[in-house]
Design brief:
By secondary structure, this protein is of the alpha+beta class. It is 17% helix and 33% strand. It has three domains: 74 residues, no CATH class; 176 residues, Jelly Rolls; 145 residues, Jelly Rolls. The strands form three sheets. Strands 2, 3, 4, 5, 6, 7, 8, 9, 10, 11, 12 and 13 form a twelve-stranded antiparallel β-sheet that branches. A seven-stranded antiparallel β-sheet has the order 1-21-18-23-16-15-14, with no helix packed on it. A hairpin with a 2-residue loop joins β14 and β15.
Length: 418
Amino acid sequence: MRELSRRNLLAATTVVGATTAFSAAASTVQLGNPDRPPEGAVNVSNPQALTEPGPQNRILADQIPAAGNPPATDVNGMPMFWSSFNLAHKRIQDGGWARQVTQSDFQISEDVSGVNMRLGPGGVRELHWHQQAEWAVMVDGKCRVTVLDAEGRPAVRDVTAGDLWYFPAGLPHSLQGLGPSGAEFVLVFDNGRASEYNTLLLSDWMIHTPPEVLAENFNLPVSAFQNMSLDARWIYQGAEPPPLAEVQRQVASPLGEPELEFVFSTSKMAPTKQTRSGSVKIVDTRNFPVSTTIAAGIVTIKPGGLRELHWHPNADEWQYWVQGTGRMTVFNTGPAAVTMDFHAGDIGYVKKGLGHYIQNTGSTDIIMVETFKDKQFAEVTLSQWLANSPRQMVAETLKMDPRLIEQISKSRPDVVPG
């Protein structure tokens, strides 16, 4: 039997769960990449070649089993597209903590970097600004955000789990955990090299400016600045803030509030796409105009569901896995196809234009955030492309019955039954 047929048989039986008719399946099913030399466990004649007698981290290996035992259709390799906040070191201060994954830690992530931050009740991420835009999604609790736009107009808002915010590059802002549990959120910067630990802090600038210059700038006596700390505040424990309405009155400007809203509530929007297997909520400049450099999709995949085969033509995809367990396969030229497993707190990255799909392999819903360094979300699905291509051409290419191709939907469900 040809090596390709043996490999194709395993791919087919993995997909459909078939265990019948070895010779029939081998002669009729042609799935998988025609890789040379042959790859995959199906090609191993001596089972001892598959064992791992050497030292290994079983806990990590069990979290990403597809890496050690890839599907038969995987072939060649590609840059690692899996990482995790669970591997990142926490920087902890009185009031909260943060951990980050930048391109220094995750080489493939060129366009964006990510930060996972926690602010306890009253915890403050001090007044600061960035050279990059900041997009964020709340994952737990309640947070107060403040921002000043380039026209000198302030805004103060309270956000809860599922809400987003976006601060354009250079706009000063602050964050504070509220209520009994504080806040946890994930930040996305539109630059893979951006670091949360390298921001422009109010406390840093003030302490590195001569007191007489500060006095002249603010029209205050020099003594007003004598108690400033020599240490940057970054994250600190603050007092419980006044009610939102009171703070909004305090900061109110005669110039009014910004024209564009800096926060967005995903809980108040209907799904952009929804099926019985899941949903996608798309948030970009079409419904969140201020977010000009980051577009996002909030994806829910129910157990057994499949985020259909697709790719994004306009930008790399940076994923944050909020909950659930899934498996993603990425396809590239070569050919190359690599599969990895993902869990809550993990990060995925797919380069622009590369085909991929996600399977829910667990017993609970996957909730995942897809972000893109672009003003709008864009996607091409494999099923929609084939359904809207000349039927004879598709049939000749795939050696399929044209009547089967007619059954492929011309709509784009995004999440389909597994």
